[in-house]
Description:
Blueprint: E1 3-4, E2 7-8, H1 16-25, H2 36-39, H3 45-57, H4 69-76, H5 79-93, H6 96-99, H7 109-120, H8 124-141, H9 147-160, H10 192-198, H11 209-219, H12 233-250
Antiparallel strand pairs: 1-2
Amino acid sequence: MVRDIGRRRLPPYVSYRTFLNFIERLQQGIPSRIDRSYWSDRLSGSTGTQLMSAMRFLGLIDSSGRPTSQLKQLVLARGAQRTEVLRQLASQAFGFLQQASFDPQTATYAQLEETFHDTFELTDSVCRKCVKFFVSLASDAGVPLSPFILRRVRSVRAETGTKPAVKRRGLKEKKNSIVPQNLEEVPEEISWDKMLVAKFPTFDPSWSDEVKLGWLETFGELKFPTFNPTWSDEVKLKWLEAFNKLRERHTPKGTS
Length: 256
């Protein structure tokens, strides 16, 4: 276990992107001591403290904040040389994984978390951040990780990722608009035309003329199967019936 003047040193749990950005900034010049007066104009107090803790854990600065030869190598390194410096840092700083008989090429994500947690007695939230930093560093350093770990990392990113909302032209958000349902939540007995309408906000007479026009324009763009003369008579009748129901249900009075 890594210790610093009798106090246990925790693995990096700062954002790996913050770490990389800081290393890039040092390419402009490395100060004789990296202290709060140097980084406070770019980082918040908590983020800066986490970053300095990470730098000490990785052996890039000493307990007084003075840069080590490894930090200078990392800042100046490029390409394959930079990858090699990162690999050496990962091997030295995370040597506890080898001591725990941890095989990064066959271990599962849960085993990786358990090793961090048991070695440093971390809380769950800090443990997840430590593991995330290590996986990012290992990837940059060319350290092979098991497909079980990488698959889990990709899964977590997909679960927490967000996509920008797509807004229809001419429409404004309203609290009483219909919220689209996931297909799994739609009852099996619901008709397809009702399912289609459920995805569309209900017409509100109190809207402005601009919003009303936008609603009508967008409603006309809803995907409805094009009538096909080759269909059977039964399908043609069903199509006409569904189309009329759809139009009658959501065409405001006084409009054509």
